[in-house]
Amino acid sequence: MVTTDQPSKPDIIRYLLEQEGRVMLCVDATQERVEVPRRFANDNSLRLVLNRQMPQTIHVGEDALESELRFGGIPHYCIIPYETLWGAFNPDTGHGMLWPDTMPNEVRQNYWLSQALRQEGGFEMPEGALKQLQKLREEQAAASGRPQLQVVPSDGPASPPAHPTDQEPPPERRKPTLRLVK
């Protein structure tokens, strides 16, 4: 059996920053040692984009990546331990690497399903499984407390309602005048 040494996570990040200019990090922010803004602490697929043109220093250490990142314009000092990093790639070219062994289970299942679909050319989901999936999504939406969008089937092609203002020409506008009041 031939084994090949894969480059380390810090080496991949350094290469992408130095050679390609950008790197998107896929992080499991639910892990304890991750330092990101509190509102992202429950995100197991947090994506952070780093650019070599960033004015702040990006420290690619042996155990973690550290930098002051901006979230909605607000700076936050972030620490990303490598054991929580499950992907690093250039978002423009797709060059990079995934580490399935450090992916959260939910992300890993979605990843393997998408790979299987890509290889097989897709599949049709049985009716019962589709209903179970919809029920699961509804439960997750209720648990998150956030409203969710859903597709609503229609009886036929929708046509925009007729507005009487669309049919009538707009009233003629007069030239503005300035009046001096004493």
TrEMBL record:
Gene Ontology CC terms: cytosol; ribosome
Region (Disordered): 137-182
Cited Pfam families: SspB (PF04386)
Single GO BP term: positive regulation of protein catabolic process
Listed InterPro entries: SspB, SspB-like_sf
Protein name according to UniProt: Stringent starvation protein B
Organism per entry: Magnetococcus marinus (strain ATCC BAA-1437 / JCM 17883 / MC-1)
